[in-house]
Amino acid sequence: MTLLNDEIREQLSGFFKGMKQDVTMAVFTEKEKCETCKQAEDFMQEIETLSDKIHLEAYDFDTHQDKAKELGVTLLPSIVLLDGEKKHQGVRFNGVPAGHEINSFIKGIMEVSGALDSLPESQQERLKKVTKPVNIKVFVTLSCPHCPGAVEKAHKLALGNPNIDAEMIEAQTFGEVAGKFNVSSVPKVVINDEFEFVGNQSIDTFLDEIEKTQ
Amino acid sequence: MELNLDITEEPKVKLKEEVLYDTLIIGGGPAGLNTALYAKRKGLNAGIITERLGGQVMDTSTVENYLGYESMTGEGLVNKFIGHVQNLQVPILKEVQVEKLDKDGDIHQVHLKNGDIYQGRTLVLATGSKPRKLGIPGEKEFSGKGVAYCAICDGPFFEGLDVVIAGGGNTAVESAIDLAKIAARVDLVHRSQLRADQVLIDQLKNYKNIHIHLETQMEEIMGEAMVTGIKVLDRKTGEKKIMNTNGIFVEIGYLPNSDVFKDYIKTNDRKEIIVDDYGRTNVDGVFAAGDITTIPYKQIITSAGDGAKVALAVNDYLNTHAKIEAPQKVVAK
After folding, report:
1. Which of A65, A136, A138, B39 is least enclosed by beta carbons within 10 angstroms?
2. Contact B156 A99 (CB under 8 A)
3. What is the ipTM of this complex?
């Protein structure tokens, strides 16, 4: 089955030419009770073919519980992007990154490979002061054009500080989690399950909320 | 599986603080992008500074009134605009916010919130508008908890539920049609008569789950953890009642994104930047284009057209004004 048409394949291969480090996509699935796991794995297999620098590692959740725990995986399917040394950088996608989220996923790969610009100095200064663990959840729907922007920002922050972990959560696949956080507008950002805001806000807004947890 | 790929190559040319641009365009929607296209073709050194590349068109599910394209997604159309401008090597700085405008001699400065300062011989303000709010009790409290402003983004949460749409223009009617495919029941509530295009109004009849309430004023949004209903006033009978609903989509038009300019540039009581026939504002060398201006009717094609006009006006301005030289002292960075 091919999920990507020729035009998209060509566009993405071109884009991936700008990658610096290799990136490994660790994909966690389970055989039963998971409607979109197969789709996630098939999709990642196709993405892998688009660049020599992209690698796929598929894990069955039940048999790799330790690995899942190490990478903070609790929802399935889940995709964690690892850097050139296969290290976890806090960049995770829960659910198939299709629809508009293809954009944040591609940006995530580029970001982890070190191909995108880092944050301006003033924001890096603020980011350095984050010393306690931070989890950023970004709830999205696949039909939302400004959701990828919020996901990209959360991931950029995660890459800029080892204490920050950022995950996209596709709200329809994980309706129960979305319900728990009363998500009815997206993107909705929840920090340490406590502080939240709606909308693709600026990096400074993310930092304002993150600082409340410190 | 549907994919909405809109990744454009990162612009190869970057906006630089040390360059004095012929024109700096603030805003990356149809008006700003078309200003850049026309300016570049006139040989001007133009750059774009934008918070959200593509602008509001990105939130439109379908565009059926842009000449030459019978039906396009909003995103598909705007990606064509962006691709066209990027192919001309116009530097685009995106995802940044402007803090203020200023002037150093004859040179216009754009100060960003991140501390960067960019310089232009002229400026074009094209920051468009944002969704207008109802301004009634409960709206702020339940924002993101049933009160929503983007039907294509948040529609999926209301599958099989009841929604109310506030508004009577094209966006409201389009949202009603989009949501009727997902929700159990859609109530379209508007304080006066529908002012959407007749072709759209005609489509409403195809959906048995859409109910229209005209001359009906929304007074208060009610709920507990989430929205549960809305209090409305029937203006014909004077009767007040509560409509039960799970969600409220507010589609009552737009407010110009002019707050950051209002102390520097003259605006009217609707916060629109006052411009003349050439898009000139009250500050010499500062122009404005598209939805942010006093020009009536806000459409994708009129905004794009306005951008073209203003680019030509900028070109004339630069031709008739002595060339402003770059400052001796370059901003250190």
Report:
1. A65
2. no
3. 0.85
Q: Which pLDDT tens digits describe chain B residue by residue (333 residues)? A: 788 887 766 666 889 999 999 999 999 999 999 999 999 999 999 999 999 899 999 888 789 899 999 998 888 899 899 999 999 999 999 888 999 999 999 999 999 988 899 999 999 999 999 989 999 999 999 998 999 999 989 999 999 999 999 999 999 999 999 999 999 999 999 999 999 999 999 999 999 999 999 999 999 999 999 999 999 999 999 999 999 999 999 999 889 999 999 999 999 999 999 999 999 999 999 999 999 999 998 899 999 999 999 999 999 999 998 666 655 555 544
Beta carbons of B153 and A143 less than 8 Å apart: yes
CB A146 within 8 A of CB B153: yes
The residue behind tokens 């599910």 is B61
Q: How far is residue B32's CA from residue B24's CA, in Å, rounded to a whole number?
A: 10
- Looking only at the bridges linking them, the beta strands covering A78-82 and B147-148 are unpaired
CA distance B130 to B107: 29
Dump the DSSP string for B33-98.
HHHHHHHHHTT--EEEEESSTTGGGGG-S-B--BTTBSSB-HHHHHHHHHHHHHHTT--EEES--E
CB B109 within 8 Å of CB B101: yes
Phi-psi region of A72 (alpha: psi -120 to 50; beta: other; left: phi over 0): left
End-to-end CA distance of chain A: 47
Instruction: State the total domains in chain B.
Output: 2
pTM: 0.85
Which member of A98, A171, A186 has the closest CB to residue B2?
A: A98
How many domains is chain A built from? 2
Cβ contacts of B157 on chain A, cutoff 8 Å: 141, 171, 178, 183-185
Interhelix angle for B300-320 vs B30-41, to 10°? 40
CATH of the domain at A163: 3.40.30.10
- Which of A112, A137, A159 terminates a domain? The answer is A112
Inter-chain residue contact B5 with A123, CB threshold 8 Å: no
What's the pLDDT tens digit per position in A40-88?
Answer: 999 999 999 999 999 999 999 999 999 999 999 999 999 999 999 999 9
Structure confidence at residue A122 as a pLDDT band (50, 70, 90) = confident
Tokens of A188: 């909705």
Residues in chain A, overall count: 214
**Which residue in the set B54, B75, B154 is minimally distant from A185, CB to CB?**
B154
Quote the CA–CA distance of B274 and B66 in Å, as a whole number. 26
Contact in structure between B281 and B287 (CB atoms under 8 Å): yes
In a domain, A11, yes or no: no
Closest by CA position to B226, among listed B142, B164, B153, B166: B142
Nearest CA to A87 out of A61, A113, A62, A124 is that of: A113
Range of the domain at B227: 147-250
